[in-house]
Specification:
single chain; endopeptidase fold (from Nostoc punctiforme); 20% strand
Length: 195
């Protein structure tokens, strides 16, 4: 049986040979979707807009210290926003997908600044899953609001409703950007795990 570092190295090598860069390919503002079996994941999958594999989302924040993912932690013990290294964020996922919104450098900087501001405020997790209860947010709402800062969302009217309330399904986030090749994602996770 191969060791985990050896497998990660092989994944990275295959990604490089396939013409995909590793973690350098991920940029601030990229959307990371996970499929997992957490309690909140079960809830998220029940409200999918079509593809119920996706249960959690976060947004890449690329800084000098490396690539991290900003996301909402829905812990019942007081969930809040978190900044987590990419390998830790994806560690328990059954599925991982990255979508890249068409952001220019100034828009990426604005999204990054907004994300850092939310982390500094220690934004609370929104257990009511409401879009109208600032400042608390749930995971897909965090991504939606970050992109809304730079007018990259189609608007609330495009979102589905449950019991008269608008919500952002996790799988709907894939439509906000170009989906990156899975090899690039695996390569990015492998490279980030080595730093």
């Amino acid at each position: 049986m191969r060791s985990r570092p050896l497998r990660a190295g092989l994944v990275l090598l295959l990604a490089l040979l396939a013409g995909t860069a590793g973690a350098d390919e991920l940029r601030t503002g990229d959307i990371v979707l996970l499929g997992n079996d957490s309690a909140w994941g079960f809830v998220a999958r029940r409200f999918a807009d079509g593809d119920d594999r996706w249960s959690h989302a976060g947004m890449v924040l690329r800084e000098a210290r490396g690539v991290s993912v900003v996301h909402m932690d829905g812990s019942p013990m007081g969930g809040h926003i978190r900044r987590e290294a990419l390998p830790a964020f994806t560690a328990h996922a059954r599925h991982v997908r990255v979508a890249r919104p068409a952001l220019g450098p100034a828009q990426r900087a604005q999204v990054g600044g907004w994300l850092r501001g939310q982390v500094a405020r220690d934004t609370a997790f929104d257990t009511g899953f409401r879009l109208d209860d600032d400042p608390a947010m749930y995971c897909s709402e965090l991504v939606w609001r970050a992109l809304d800062q730079v007018a990259m969302t189609p608007g609330v009217d495009s979102l589905p409703r449950v019991a008269g309330r608008v919500y952002v399904p996790v799988d709907r986030l894939l439509a906000l950007g170009q989906v990156l090749d899975d090899r690039a994602v695996r390569g990015a996770v492998a490279v980030a795990g080595r730093h």
